[in-house]
Every structure is written in structure tokens, then in C-alpha cells.
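Per your request, structure below.
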């Protein structure tokens, strides 16, 4: 089955958009615009291919930097890259053990581990799946000089976790070397996605930690992390490293960027896990045989290959793509659908998936309980009373709120100014809300931090409002709610004789006015609302941004004064968020924007309660 689009939560198959439910792109980074940009930047700077093996001329600074970053991520001294996870396993096992040695391998280990064991020439002892007692029996009865225990941490086809603590203790007790494969745990488990070893507080006690760049890190390649001595040994002896052309720069650049993002945006791993848990519970409620997942892999057991293929075919008819996994990939009699979740799946995707499974089983959509309530977000043009008042934070919070509620959200930034100094508001919104790359439209990127018409003139760029409107129409057609984030205030010129308000009017979008909480805001807000209304633009309300926890008298009285002077309602209040920095893509790790916006915007903010609480505060303020 060929896919004709990128690895996003929805993909195109045979011209139809279907939900992708089987990708290992757990964090949604394979199609992330920042990761794509890193791949193309690496291609432009370092070339498409690496030209030779690492020991000849294939080592670039890029490879070494990623190796350092991966080692740090896994709390190890060093790491080494391979062209794939498959080669990392095969090359490492065949280097660590050979004839006369014994390798102990879980019966459900990945094929690349099995092939590495075979290639090594060591005697093989296959222990029962995740059975530490069986492993101990094997270790106790072996007197080989060198013994290696190897296991997946999260099992690729079963989604469960190896009993790591017990395995580590056994290896220490029986003086065996331990190698773990973190392919499905990296990015998804552990603090900042460091993996299952970190999640079990076993860092430093597992000498050989293998992982892939092809799953959570959205790229291609594999790696092993461990001591400097181990990595030096592999660098010089692992044939899958020595005799293989070095990983291609675009793959390395993309993985490096994805690693940074996965660490900073640790909500991605948490979200993928949370969705997997909800999905497996929903499937069990529908009568399917789905285990509680340890990470983002949920096996739905079927049994016979023909039945699994039929289930997969019928799900595809319902718009869900998840192929059947059959022997020899899994043991006979255990054909299944290997369902996986991605951080970028929305709640709506989850509800649609459960509906599809339910329809296939019982001819009915999933019970209403399985379908999450959908608030009613609407498209808005986010403007501000001034520059720097928090438009981008508000747009990002709304995008995140709406996409969490299951809407496919589009973002348009008609003009991004200040690009030379690194300004990239769309990137901030995307990093907070995780939108599809194709749903982000930046009309013009202009170097100077000036009004767009001025910045464009300096660069001899002609801003064409009708082209922007056409792109906006197309964006609205493929999404369910669109946020347009203007540049500067409403009367700032986008092109000569055409201001932001003109764009909002021509796009027939209501404006949401972002205002500051302190002195000066009443007049600015009233003028902005007036400018909109004089053009017949609907005003969706005023959002006060950066509202202090402990408001002074001005902040406590301004909201009701704003309403009185502008005739627009306070539609939301975003609190002061410590450490938010739009330019550095910083925002609090766990934000829940629901309480910041009123019900019309999809949140739970209670305007009356807010105004009343300020009134009480004002009455008790010291005279
Ligand atoms: C557990 C496990 N190890 C290793 C690999 C191989 O990784 P790659 O696909 O990067 O070659 C995979 C993926 O298929 C896997 O599931």
C-alpha cells in the first residue's frame, strides 16, 4: 500500500485522506516543519550523501555532534551511529560475542537482534518472553566465558515492557553483559523521552543501550550508547559500521533537530502514551483484545492471518490505515493489528478510530461515551492593541486548545517580519500546538522588524493581498478552524494602502483583540475595537494577556473599564506565564489553555466570575 503524502496523523492513500494508525513516528516529528528544514539545511550544507564510510571520509561535525547529543540523552559516556537500527543491532551483537560465548535473547526480540545473534556465531539461549526466572535458569546453567543478555525494552509487536530491574540485577549477579534495544522507548518513556532505562532509574547499570533514529526521532539510522571503551571497540570492529557508508547528512541533521525538539517538547511522548492508553481502553470496551500499552504500541490480537487482513481492510474502508501483522513477523496464531499512536493525533482522530473499530465490529459507531465532547471553536483573526502584547502566545494557546479538542487547525501568518533576527511566530505556535505542516501558511517572510509594507519595500517585495486571501481560502477549506495572526496592530499596513483590518474584513473573520493588562490599555483597546467596527468587522472579544497573579489597582479595574470603553467583552485572560519566550520557543511544559478562554472560544473561562473577583479585590485594596 503506497502513501502519497508525509507521515502525518492523516495520510493520502489512493487519493483518500485516512487516519494513519501504524506509524512509528510516535512524536509526529518526521513531518515537523523544523525537522524537515533541518534535513534540507543539512543537505544544502553537507550534501545529499556522506560519500564514504565513517573511518574514511564519511565523518562530519554533524555526525559527531549527534553522537555527543545521543550519549548525553542516554546518560552515557559516548555513542556511535549506524545507518539503521537494524545494522546497529546486528553489528553490535556480532562484535560483542562470538563462538564460545553465549547470548541470551528474549523470544519476542526484534528480528535484527535475532539476526545479530545468528551472525555472531555465539551459542543462543532463547528465554521465555519477559520471564526473568527463565533467564536466570539459563544464566545459572551456563559457564561460558562471555555472556550477553539482550532484550527490547518496549517490545515492538507486543508493546509491553521487559522486566528491566530484574534483568539488570541478574546480569550483575551472573556477571553477564546487558544490551537493551530502546527503539520503541526512546522519546516516549522516561523523563524528557530518555527511554525505559531512564524511566526505571537504571541509567549507568546497562552497559549497551541501542536505539533508532527512525521512530520517535522521525529520521533514519541507529545508534549505540555506552562507555568510551565500548564505543571505540564498535567504531573499529563492528563490520556494520566500518564497512557501511556513513549515515547521510540530511538524516543526521533531521535526527539532531528532532532529538532537541523531543527533549524540549516532552509533552509529545506523554501525549502519544496517553492516547495509546485511551485507545486501548476504548478498544477493550468495544470487545477487542487489546493490552494496556507500556508506550505507544497497542497490539490488537486477532489470531488467524486471514481475519487480521479482513479487519484491516474493513478499517481502511472506514478511513483508518493499520495493516495486519502476520507470521513470521509474529508467532503463529497471533496475527494482529499493531496499532500505534502519535503525539499529533487529535482527540477527534481517536474518536473516529474508535467509531471505525466499532462499526466494523457491530455495525454501529462507538458509544457516545467514547466520543469526546467537541467544543465549538471558530476561526478568528488575532490582532493586538500594539506590538509585543502577546498575540503569538494567544494564537498558540488557542491553536493548542482547538487541536486538543480534536479540530484540525490551520494557522496563517500573513507576514512574518524580523526574520533576519530569527523571528518565527508560526514556529512558536506549531511547537506548542503541533499542527500539520501543510496547515501552516506564512505569506511573506521579511527581514526587518518593521511594518510589513515598509519591510517589503526595503526588500523590493510586492505583497499581494489577493494571493494571501486565496491561500487563506484554501487553508480554510482543508481545516476546521483557522487562526490568522496579524503583524502589529489592526491599522498596520500590510501592503501599500491595505492594512491588517482590510485583510480581516476581506477574509470575513472576526477579530480577537489581544490587550495588555496595565496602564494605557483602555484607550488602545477601545480604539482597536472602534477601528474594526468602523469597517464592519465583527469583534470576537478582548483577550488580556500576561495578567499578573497579584493584580494591582490598574489591572484589577482595567477589565471592566475596557468593556465599558470598547463595548467588547473580555473573551479570555491569559495569566502571566513564567519563562515564556516566543523567540526561543519557550513555554511552560504543561499548559492547559482551557481556563484562559471563554466557551465561545472553546474554553472554560468564566467572564462574570473573573470580573466579580476583581471587583472584590478592588473593594479590599488598601485606600
Ligand atoms: C525493536 C527494534 N529494533 C530495531 C529496529 C530496526 O530499526 P531500523 O528500522 O531503524 O532499522 C526496529 C524497527 O524496525 C525495532 O522495532
Amino acid at each position: 500500500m503506497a502513501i502519497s503524502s508525509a507521515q502525518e496523523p492523516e495520510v493520502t492513500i489512493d487519493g483518500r485522506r485516512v487516519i494513519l494508525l501504524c506509524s512509528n513516528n510516535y512524536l509526529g516529528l518526521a513531518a515537523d516543519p523544523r525537522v524537515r528544514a533541518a534535513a534540507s539545511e543539512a543537505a544544502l550544507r553537507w550534501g545529499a550523501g556522506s560519500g564514504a564510510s565513517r573511518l574514511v571520509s564519511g565523518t562530519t561535525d554533524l555526525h559527531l555532534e549527534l553522537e555527543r547529543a545521543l550519549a548525553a540523552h542516554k546518560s552515557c559516556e559516548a555513542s556511535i551511529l549506524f545507518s539503521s537500527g537494524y545494522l546497529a543491532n546486528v553489528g553490535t551483537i556480532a562484535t560483542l560475542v562470538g563462538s564460545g560465548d553465549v547470548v541470551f535473547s528474549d523470544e519476542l526480540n526484534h528480528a535484527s537482534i535475532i539476526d545479530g545473534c545468528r551472525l555472531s556465531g555465539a551459542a543462543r539461549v532463547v528465554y521465555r518472553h519477559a520471564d526473568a526466572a527463565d533467564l536466570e535458569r539459563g544464566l545459572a546453567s551456563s559457564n561460558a566465558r562471555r555472556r550477553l543478555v539482550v532484550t527490547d525494552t518496549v517490545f515492538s509487536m507486543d508493546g509491553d515492557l521487559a522486566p528491566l530491574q530484574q534483568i539488570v540485577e541478574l546480569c550483575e549477579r551472573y556477571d553477564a553483559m546487558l544490551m537493551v534495544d530502546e527503539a520503541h522507548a526512546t522519546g516516549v518513556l522516561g523523563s524528557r523521552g530518555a527511554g525505559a532505562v531512564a524511566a526505571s532509574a537504571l541509567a549507568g547499570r546497562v552497559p549497551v543501550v541501542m536505539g533508532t533514529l527512525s521512530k520517535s526521532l522521525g529520521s533514519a539510522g541507529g545508534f549505540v550508547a555506552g562507555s568510551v571503551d565500548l564505543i571505540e571497540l564498535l567504531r573499529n570492529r563492528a563490520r556494520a559500521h566500518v564497512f557501511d557508508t556513513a549515515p547521510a547528512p540530511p538524516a543526521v541533521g533531521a535526527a539532531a533537530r528532532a532529538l532537541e525538539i523531543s527533549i524540549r517538547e516532552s509533552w509529545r511522548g506523554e501525549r502519544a502514551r496517553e492516547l495509546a492508553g485511551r485507545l486501548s481502553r476504548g478498544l477493550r470496551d468495544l470487545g477487542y483484545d487489546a493490552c494496556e500499552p507500556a508506550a505507544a504500541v497497542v497490539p490488537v490480537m486477532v489470531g488467524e492471518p486471514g481475519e487480521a487482513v479482513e479487519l484491516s481492510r474493513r478499517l481502511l474502508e472506514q478511513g483508518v490505515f493499520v495493516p495486519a501483522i502476520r507470521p513470521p513477523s509474529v508467532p503463529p496464531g497471533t496475527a494482529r493489528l499493531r496499532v500505534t499512536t502519535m503525539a499529533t493525533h487529535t482527540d477527534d482522530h481517536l474518536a473516529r478510530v474508535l467509531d471505525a473499530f466499532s462499526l466494523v465490529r457491530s455495525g454501529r459507531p462507538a458509544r457516545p461515551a467514547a466520543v469526546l465532547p467537541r467544543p465549538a471553536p471558530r476561526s478568528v483573526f488575532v490582532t493586538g492593541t500594539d506590538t509585543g502584547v502577546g498575540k503569538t502566545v494567544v494564537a498558540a494557546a488557542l491553536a493548542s486548545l482547538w487541536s486538543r479538542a480534536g479540530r484540525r487547525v490551520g494557522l496563517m501568518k500573513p507576514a512574518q517580519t524580523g526574520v533576519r533576527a530569527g523571528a518565527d511566530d508560526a514556529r512558536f505556535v506549531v511547537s506548542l500546538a503541533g499542527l500539520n505542516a501543510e496547515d501552516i501558511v506564512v505569506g511573506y517572510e521579511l527581514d526587518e522588524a518593521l511594518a510589513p509594507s515598509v519591510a517589503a519595500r526595503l526588500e523590493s517585495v510586492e505583497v499581494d493581498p489577493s494571493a494571501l486571501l486565496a491561500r487563506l481560502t484554501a487553508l480554510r477549506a482543508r481545516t476546521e478552524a483557522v487562526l490568522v495572526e496579524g503583524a502589529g496592530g489592526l491599522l498596520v499596513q500590510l501592503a501599500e494602502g491595505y492594512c491588517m483590518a482590510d485583510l480581516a474584513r476581506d477574509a470575513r473573520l472576526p477579530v480577537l483583540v489581544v490587550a495588555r493588562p496595565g496602564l494605557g490599555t483602555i484607550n488602545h483597546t477601545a480604539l482597536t475595537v472602534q477601528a474594526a467596527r468602523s469597517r464592519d468587522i465583527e469583534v470576537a472579544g478582548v483577550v488580556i494577556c500576561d495578567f499578573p497573579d497579584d493584580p494591582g489597582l490598574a489591572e484589577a479595574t482595567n477589565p471592566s473599564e475596557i468593556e465599558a470603553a470598547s463595548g467588547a467583552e473580555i473573551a479570555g485572560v491569559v495569566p502571566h506565564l513564567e519563562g515564556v519566550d516566543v523567540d526561543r520557543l519557550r513555554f511552560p511544559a504543561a499548559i492547559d489553555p482551557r481556563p484562559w478562554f471563554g466557551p465561545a472560544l472553546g474554553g472554560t473561562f468564566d467572564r462574570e466570575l473573573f470580573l466579580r473577583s476583581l471587583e472584590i479585590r478592588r473593594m479590599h485594596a488598601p485606600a
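The chain has 22 helices and 23 strands.

Regards,
D.
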